[in-house]
Amino acid sequence: MRMKSKKGQLTVSQPVARNRMLGAGLSVPILVFVIGMTLCSPPVFAREGTSTNHDYWAVEDAKAREKLPLYKIIPAATTAELTPANGFPKRETFLTWHRSHGDNGGTRYSALNQINRDNITNLTVAWTYHSKDGSNSIQCNPIIVGDIMIAPTPGKYVVGINAENGTELWRFKPEGRPAFRGLIYRPGDAELSERVMFCAGRWLYALDPKTGKPIADFGEGGRAPLPARGQDYFGAATAGPAIFQQTIVVPGFEKDVWGFDVGTGQLRWTFHTVPHTGEFGAETWDHPEPYGANAWSGMALDEVRGIAYVPTGSAKENFIGINHLGDNLFANCLIAIDVRTGRRLWHFQQIAHDIWDQDISAPPNLATIKRDGKLVDVVAVTSKIGDTLLLDRVTGKPIFPYRFRRAPTSDLPGEVTAPYQPDPVLPERFSKMEFTADDVTDRTPEAKDFVTDRFKSATTGFFHPASLGKANLYLGMDGGAEWSGACVDPDTGRLYVSANHAAWLISVFRDDDPPDDPSAPPTPGQKIFQANCVQCHGANRMGIGVAPPLRGLRFRLTDEALVKQVRFGKNGMPANTAISDAELKALADYLFLRDRPTPPNPGKSERPRYGFTGYPHFVDNDGYPANKPPWGTLNCLDLNTGKLLWKVPLGEFPELTAQGVPKTGTENYGGPIVTAGGLVFCSGTRDSKIRAFDANTGAELWSGKLPWVGIAPPATYEVNGRQYIVTASTGNKIGKQSEYGDAYVAFALPK
Fold first, then answer.
1. What is the pLDDT of residue 595?
2. What is the dihedral of CA 589, 591, 592, 596, to 10 degrees?
3. Contacts of 493 (CB under 8 A, 6+ apart)
4. Which helix (DSSP H) or strand (DSSP E) does residue 587 occupy?
5. Which letter does DSSP use for residue 369 in this model?
6. Average pLDDT over the chain, rounded to an integer
7. What secondary structure letter does DSSP report for 366?
8. Which string of DSSP letters, residue by residue, matches 496-513?
9. Residue 561 belongs to what H/E stretch?
């Protein structure tokens, strides 16, 4: 790897590529990105079963980090290096909806145009289906096979529904929650019958789409085992699979990616998203974590070249990296896998050693764009931090120069952060991670004062690691982009993505305190805590919102500092002058574990033990997001130029609109689709609406009320000459107002 230095930055030349044959006559470079490895000497860690002299209690050297160049840049692919477009998929692919997210490429684009800008205001409910088997959050984009819509229900069935009138035709009960975020249809041919395929529990299922009956010769009576434990709620796989020739690719929720024979269900290969000892990338972990680098959100597939594109989550556990030191490949990566062999072709790691829960959380989108006058094939994937990775589909090289910025060190003993984190210029970001003073709400003077006091107590900044006992404040825990992802118009190269703009407060603490004995009588200090402190710090001393955890307090405060803070207050904590000196001493004895028997000290552990206090939102005094609106947006990004063309609020709080507040947008999890009618459809907002926007301008042209929030992307299809837009409407986790339901709702123009 060659490097060129400029003032304040360092340019990394393209990694050396090895060629590996991908099918007859097709050569694909394998790119190995060793980001930051030549800029400083990273510590050597011990993987399980080995040893090293690394000090797991050391604190990082911030001054040494500051000596590194401010930026590191991976250059864009040259014109000669770009992969020419191959003309696929063909136009007829966009007239069907045979896979969740539309097609193998995940474009969520339809060439249907009966519903368009001119007549969208006439759109009305065509039918509503109720599964009547329970209520739960459906996150799956349904598919349509002929005149049958196939989708999961809240009661954990898969159903076939007459797509013209919403009448149930059949239902099937698998073992586990089916088609969590996707399913797929494979047409029949001379060798195999047609089949609908999805995962549920620990199984990959194949059903007859017309009857819902299992395909008897697939696996064990219509199902094949997945090589994972399979949690009750998520199962072994949540992402929708994709099919290339005779192989169905299944990303694993617990980690790894599998290829199965689409006819027999036999396992053909496994790709380890956490490399095993001796595999490439194994040296980037000292202690692999369960569920690390899991492929939970989705995937896309180039059905001509036979390349699967799989994004991965963080290394786990979230926020605390002491137990998985290193860059943690292939966490937070987009991985290109040869479907024929299961071998990695290239990978691009967005965030190394992620301690912020910033997964690449969306399914990728395949697109064709114009660069330097030529059409080239690319893969795009949106992320929680509002960044869009845009890479050459075959080589993995970035279309635009990709910039990394020097990141701060951690002050937690034992933590070792990555020296660089993403800070791209193009494509332009549609949301951000940093929360600054300028972001503090000004909705009302009271809200501003409330938030400002608490903002002062938090740590903030570019990829700022958590500190002991302080809330670390940033945007993007649930996006930016989320599992609902983006859609792409193949005719224009424009990407549309819904995004959240809400802040979170993450607190980390030394987790060495023994649990309280519930059978023991409360001590005097415990009684004082319960009377004065529990409303902010919680009965379990874990902290609520910006109020810090008081577990492990003895590691970060002295008696003198505690007395001063209680007496005089600090930021959002009010002064308490009424408490007596004796009461304050008793409180300190309780918080510092001096007023009750404690287990014998086992001595210094190999590594510090930390815990975190959960996932509290940062909200104002009335419960609205603590940052300025918009709190949810729909965005249009031109992939040809990397420029945002428009950004509009998505959703509203009716009570604020009634007060004359401009539309704020809301937290949302629906995800858009785009059609040849010049429309973008999107739901997922707190106000339980599905909306249609002008694809060129972002103007909201129509909205329809749903019985419950819809948190899966819509689908569109045509039956007997009539176009329909259908979406799940089952409610979700957005606020207390959202209940759970059991509906699918289809819209169409009047007959």
1. 82
2. 60
3. 367, 368, 369, 370, 638, 639, 640
4. helix 581-591
5. E
6. 89
7. E
8. EEEEE--EEEEEEEE--P
9. helix 559-568
